[in-house]
Design goal:
Number of strands: 0
Number of helices: 17
Structural class: mainly alpha
Largest sheet: none
Distance between the termini: 52 Å
Length: 358
């Protein structure tokens, strides 16, 4: 069996096992053979499984897929594996837009919250681009984004100081990312945004493939690099902001999912990696939600705490192993391709180039 079918089988097995656990485990416990019967019933088990556990499962899959796709779009656009929503002010801005009305006692309809998250995420992303300068290098955008994210997180801390005890507990759980008590209403509220984002994702795939070649080569092929990065950021905002409005910023999924996709499918183009990154993100959130529900039962922990706890060390380990393989002459993984794609002639000192020309 080749590498690709093995990776696909492992991914599907993890997704199926997590889905069964999501529907069966908890109080009450439902045996796997009874799932179909319980979903068709009107008893307490049917209500719990059909109206609480199943929409939570669907939301975990949708949230993970969107975060994984958004993470890959940002990494490809900025040619840096650390370009994730948490490092560009997008997640912090969206969280600030949703948390501010709650602390300031402003009554906001549920349908308006995605727009507040969208505005906050767009504000964070635009502050990053404007502060870094649209024409500057991707590394400058990333460093500036980290500073903007820190400033927005400081604003969130100020809001937490101003909040009363009840609001503080709600904000704290929200800021860590939680899927608790989500219903079908929360899931259906995401579909209009997905309908808007999916065509944009399909259209941006060819541009991402060109941006991977480097800024100079992309300009030579007719791509306006600054506008392309702004468009990539806008797509990431549309993918992330509605999810942050519903379940909070589920941290570091956009960092881990593209690294897993690059390891499982190292030879794919931008379109294939986008699909694999979305699938890996869905599996990561779905798997992380099970210990969030069950590890400290009957108390639920935020799923974002588990994704951060696992995602950061695993993602860093994948980055290190990918770079090590690139240095030792092995097949360079996509997580290390940004460093491996540098042109040695272009990076050589001018004196060395003149000597070689003679």
């Amino acid at each position: 069996m080749t590498r690709r079918p093995v990776a696909l089988v492992c991914l599907l097995t993890a997704a199926l096992a997590s889905a069964v656990c999501a529907l069966c485990l908890g109080t009450p416990y439902v045996a796997p053979p009874r799932i179909a019967q319980v979903l068709g019933g009107d008893g307490p088990e049917g209500v719990i499984v059909g109206q609480l556990r199943l929409p939570r499962l669907v939301l975990a899959v949708v949230a993970g897929a969107c975060l994984g796709a958004a993470g890959l779009v940002l990494q490809e656009a900025l040619r840096n594996p650390l370009a994730v929503p948490e490092m560009l002010g997008v997640s912090s801005g969206a969280a600030l837009g949703v948390a501010a009305p709650l602390v300031l006692a402003v009554s906001v309809p549920l349908a308006v919250e995605p727009f507040l998250a969208l505005g906050g995420a767009a504000l964070g992303g635009l502050l990053t681009l404007l502060a870094a300068g649209l024409g500057r290098s991707p590394s400058a955008v990333l460093l500036t984004g980290a500073a903007v994210a820190a400033a927005l997180q400081a604003g969130l801390l100020v809001l937490m100081v101003l909040a009363d005890q009840l609001d503080l507990q709600l904000i704290y759980r929200y800021l860590l990312g939680s899927l608790s008590a989500r219903t079908w209403e929360d899931v259906t509220g995401l579909w209009p945004w997905l309908v808007l984002a999916l065509p944009a994702l399909v259209l941006c795939v060819p541009v991402l493939g060109v941006l991977r070649l480097g800024d100079d080569d992309a300009r030579a092929l007719g791509v306006r690099v600054g506008r392309a990065r702004v468009a990539a950021l806008a797509i990431a905002v549309v993918l992330i902001a509605p999810l942050v409005a519903v379940c909070g910023p589920v941290a570091w999924v956009g960092f881990l999912a593209p690294q897993l996709a690059g390891r499982l499918r190292p030879d794919g183009d931008a379109g294939r990696r986008l699909v694999w990154s979305a699938a890996c993100g869905a599996v990561v959130v779905l798997c992380a939600d099970q210990p969030a529900r069950l590890a400290l039962a009957p108390v639920e922990t935020p799923v974002g705490a588990w994704t951060a706890l696992v995602g950061v060390p695993v993602g860093v380990a994948l980055l290190k192993t990918g770079r090590r393989r690139a240095r030792t002459g092995g097949r360079a993984e996509p997580v290390a391709r940004y460093a491996a794609e540098a042109d040695p002639v272009r990076e050589a000192p001018p004196a060395l180039i003149r000597k070689a020309e003679r």
